[in-house]
Description:
Blueprint (H helix, E strand, L loop, with lengths): L1 E12 L5 E13 L4 E5 L6 H8 L7 E6 L2 E2 L4 H6 E4 L14 H11 L5 H14 L4 H4 L9 H14 L4 E5 L7 H16 L3 E6 L2 H7 L2 E6 L2 E7 H6 L4 H8 L18 H4 L7 E4 L2 E3 L13
Parallel strand pairs: 3-8, 3-9, 6-7, 7-8
Antiparallel strand pairs: 1-2, 1-4, 4-5, 9-10, 10-12, 11-12
Helix pairs in contact: 4-6, 6-7
Adenosine-5'-triphosphate binds next to strand 1, strand 2 and helix 1.
Amino acid sequence: MLKLDDVTKEFRIGAFGGRSVTAVKNVSFEVVPGEVVSLIGESGSGKSTIGRMILGLNPATSGSITFDGRPARPGKEYYRHVQGIFQDPFSSFNPVFKADRVFAMIKEAYYPAVPEPEWARRVAACLSDVRLNPGQVLGKYPHQLSGGQLQRLLIARALLLDIKLLVADEITSMLDASTRIDVLNLLAELKARGLGVLYITHDLSLGNYLAERTVVLRRGSVVEMGLTEKVFGEPLHPYTRELLSAVPRLHESWDDAEPVDTCLYHERGAEGGLLEAEPGHLVACARLGACPPVRP
Ligand SMILES: Nc1ncnc2c1ncn2[C@@H]1O[C@H](COP(=O)(O)OP(=O)(O)OP(=O)(O)O)[C@@H](O)[C@H]1O
């Protein structure tokens, strides 16, 4: 369904754009229908940039992003099937419009011919799917609703479309623990309906809770990916191990993963990209990028 192939993103920075920063480097992975893929990595590792490229908010510098075999081109048809939800739900709403406006805009753009009573029935059904009471949310301004209610409204909006892929970027990080579990369970329901979900998070436990497969990013590159149980249960890359064992301690800063002298990647004479250590479980060089290719 969604396929990223060797995708790189460079941003021009500096006063006259004379320098560039590589936010995402040669990233390839897929999301298939009915699957949650979690994209994890520390802050600045490129997760949101990948989400934004998939949503057409930033163009890729090189590589390709395809959806159902066709280049992912942002536009009305694309957004019928691919939607994104972000960390701060307030930012997705125009504060001067009531919540109803979100649904009215979908109707105007995609379903102008649907009669009002039928549309009201559909909106009520989608709100009920996300366990919102229309009477409690419609007719209210964004500031009159909680973060959890706004995230659910955005999921309901996505459900009104013929959505196939949801990019969920840190959508639970502003929610309290119980609301977070509710929203995660909603994502699990979307998965059960056959939707694909790219779940972007830096919270490993949440990724573990939901995702069939996990992609671990470090400084814009994939260092490990595979079935979540493998990546979490038998991590091969020192950065993944570091992430999994990282427990915050007061007054102690995060120690980056230590480069290693030997690694599976080099032992097997890999020369680029990711090594398939076992079927479907891929790992990058564990020397953390600071090494030339090694020949057997
Ligand atoms: N518009 C931009 N212009 C210049 N650099 C950018 C831009 N957007 C992102 N970056 C840089 O790209 C890198 C990746 O940023 P990104 O937001 O994708 O990371 P992230 O993993 O989502 O981090 P976080 O978890 O903190 O949101 C960072 O170094 C960031 O500073």
